[in-house]
Amino acid sequence: MSTLVQNHVPVEPEATSFARRAYDRVARYYDLLELPMEWLAFRRWRRRLWRNVRGPRVLELGVGTGKNIPFYPPDVTVTAIDLSPRMLARARRRAARFPDRDVELLEMDAQALSFPNDTFDDVVATFVFCSVPDPVKGLREALRVTRPSGRLHLLEHMRVRSERIGRWMDRLDPLFYRLTGVHIARRTTENIQKAGWVLEQEVDLAPGGLVRHLIARKPTNLQEP
Predict the structure, then answer these.
(1) Would 65 disulfide with which of 34, 90, 183, 225, CB 3.0-4.6 Å?
(2) Dihedral of the alpha carbons of 122, 123, 127, 133, in degrees to the nearest 10
(3) 49-62 tens-digit pLDDT
(4) Residue 72 domain-assigned (yes or no)
């Protein structure tokens, strides 16, 4: 049985506030900014991810404007959270267009989840851990609230596999973060494992592993570090 302890104390409060402000600021035109990539690839990748989600109780981290809602399986109950109130307002409008989806939308920080241990069967996030201030903390919280043997499903853009290009991404990362609140050089695969998940699948969706589909499992008999 998991002995991880619930922790509501947010980390890096200034960085968390910065992330909230950044997404509140772009909420009105966020969907428009991503529309080309959404139609070219993101929708297809979202559909692929949600086909593997079993539930029945699912947590979506960083629901944003609700782009995943159309792809929720009909037999799952989704609790979807986001840090940004303005993004959530748009997600609620999108959810209203899909009344057959069983979804509850909550304002919450992925780094300090207000759920008991072992609550969910699956946890999902799409393009979220590039902007969580402490990604390992967020992934540990996801681990805590997932039942033993439950799974984590991620779509993430991250540092490419090429070390030469990766070093350039490292140099540019602080500038991108200051402008957008998004990190471009996160090592998300390593962060998943640092948080205690067992990586089961890693599929490159873009050249060099720039975007990847990741599935990890919560081990049984997990003990608090």
Answers:
(1) 90
(2) -160
(3) 999 999 999 999 99
(4) yes
